[in-house]
Amino acid sequence: MTGSAPTGPDPGAGVVVIGGGAVGSFIATLIARSGRAVVLAGRPGSGRSGSDELAVRTPDGAAWRTRVDRADGTAGLGRPAGVVLAVKMPDLDAAIEACAAWPTTPVVTLQNGIGAEEAVAAARPGAPLLAGSLTAPLGFEADGTLAWRARRGIAFGSVRGDTAAVLAALRDPLDAAGLAVAQVDDWRAMKWSKLLTNLVANAVPALLDSDAASVYADRRLFAVERAAVLETLRVMRALGYAPMRLPGADVRWLAAAFRAPTLFGQPVLRRVVGRARGGKAPSLLLHLRAGGGPSEAPWLNGAVARAGEAAGVPTPVNAALAAMMAAADASPAAWDTTRGRPTALLSTIGGPSTTWRSP
Q1: What phi and psi values does residue 178 have, to the nearest 5 degrees?
Q2: Is the CB of residue 32 less than 8 Å from the CB of residue 66?
């Protein structure tokens, strides 16, 4: 995926959103609704180009139909005012390559997990960089409608360079559409706080092929979830990052609920975790049900394990979950060893221990 040669700066140029999935389609639709120029660039060879009407169902039940310009890759596109990378982590390298022809154009990262900003910064040393964390749950329905399941919002933090213009180009249309927008000073704390929300009820339900409510109703499985979050909080503390309030997701409260004794924390979290996802199945479970392959797990539980090792913080549960997800991603037979088999999952992790339970 490689963009066209630069056409020179154009103050009136719009935004190119790379990634035609739920997040990219959502961001492009909100920009287009504001009347600003935007191009939604999909994977080369997808055959989707030209004007297209996208349908969005809002949290209050309203139906939006908005025309968006699509491009089959970035070849032939003029230099935009900003680029939004709205692909999943396994596709990030290709998305970075897709905007290589615009080496100084500001870039916005919207990936879950840890590592996107570092990868973009290394590949594009001369470009301003803005990190984003989207908390609104999204998903396509059977008829192709994009369901925006809860208002929530998006947070941005400047990583490098002058990002004021690209922030304004996004903030105004997103805010006008009803998506709460916040600007934070510490982008790393923002990304780690968002990571906490992505870890909750994700790998464990995926490995079991189960729903979050069932996992949180089982005291043994809740212990695994709690251990993974507590390990992450210890790593964050070692790195000097504190959970923060994101738009529509106060991660400080989430951390407090997991730190509370199980007797108090489990009933509360059991009620809220399913609701927090807006009825959407965990992303890692959807990935496995779609056939597997590279997933975001290395940048979720795997990122916690790597950071913990570097900081000298033990992370046995996150490391085990990352390893099991890697095996399940690679082989349906490996997934079958834990599907519907919580005892097998617990046995692989090693069973509850004092290390798991300590806050």
Answers
A1: 100, 10
A2: yes
